[in-house]
Write a sequence for this structure.
């Protein structure tokens, strides 16, 4: 991109690559189709027709964008982008924060193979396990797909696409730092905002929205850590089972989803047929801290 080692300069180029007001919904639809087509083309996970055809899209109000400055997903995808009643600087920050490449790296996280596909299976396969809902399973799954598509050379990645994907990886790490630090009394809300702006390359408006969302009380102190820790657990489990040839990749993903909510170590026990009893204690060493 001609920026040398100046990643903030590269990020600035990417942030200014956005679609015109009124066009974001078209972009989201195209990106959603791209993600679905990819996992189907390479037979990575079973995608039922109903899951593909019945998701909905909503635009978030200016008030909601102050708490959710990006996307929210599940049975529907909620999109942040300028609306007429917003001030000009708010519109610009919304467009820059939801540029083409940031969006491409997250639409599949929210829809297919991410949360939309999760919620489809959650309501149909072993729904009684919804009692065990945790961010490690829910958010870990979608972030795991960000890692997998980063690794997969078949997923097209231009330099700008890569910057978009790396922004989100940095963003996830920064959220762990500020959310836990806030709850430990080591950072104020304003310091959390400044961290996202100065260390993670956020627009100030999106940083403020992220901090409001994380600290308002709707999310547990460990929720943001759940994204990364859950994803790393699933990634490690894939290395154990798929990369060694014990389970085909599609079967791995399908069985994970059909198992419904549970700790990732229990997913491992299920897929590896590990005997369980009432005295079972957690014992999986899934991360090598020496590296």
């Amino acid at each position: 991109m001609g920026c040398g080692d100046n990643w903030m300069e590269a990020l600035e180029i990417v942030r200014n690559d956005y679609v015109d007001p009124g066009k974001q919904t078209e972009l989201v639809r195209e990106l959603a189709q791209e993600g679905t087509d990819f996992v189907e083309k390479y037979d990575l996970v079973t995608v039922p027709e109903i899951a593909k055809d019945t998701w909905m899209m909503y635009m978030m109000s200016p008030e909601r964008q102050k708490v959710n400055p990006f996307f929210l997903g599940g049975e529907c995808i909620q999109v942040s982008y300028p609306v007429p009643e917003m001030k000009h600087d708010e519109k610009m920050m919304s467009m820059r924060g939801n540029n083409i490449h940031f969006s491409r790296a997250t639409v599949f996280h929210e829809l297919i193979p991410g949360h939309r596909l999760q919620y489809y299976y959650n309501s149909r396969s072993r729904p009684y396990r919804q009692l065990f809902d945790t961010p490690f399973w829910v958010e870990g799954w979608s972030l795991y797909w960000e890692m997998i598509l980063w690794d997969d050379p078949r997923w097209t990645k231009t330099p700008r696409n890569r910057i978009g994907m790396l922004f989100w990886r940095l963003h996830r790490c920064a959220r762990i730092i500020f959310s836990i630090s806030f709850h430990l009394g080591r950072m104020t809300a304003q310091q959390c905002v400044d961290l996202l702006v100065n260390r993670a390359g956020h627009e100030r408006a999106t940083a403020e929205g992220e901090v409001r969302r994380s600290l308002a009380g709707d999310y547990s102190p460990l929720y943001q850590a759940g994204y990364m820790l859950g994803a790393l657990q699933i990634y490690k489990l894939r290395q154990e089972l798929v990369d060694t040839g014990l389970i085909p990749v599609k079967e791995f993903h399908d069985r994970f989803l059909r198992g419904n909510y549970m700790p990732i170590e229990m997913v491992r026990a299920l897929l590896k047929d590990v005997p369980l009893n009432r005295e079972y204690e957690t014992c999986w060493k899934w991360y090598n801290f020496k590296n």
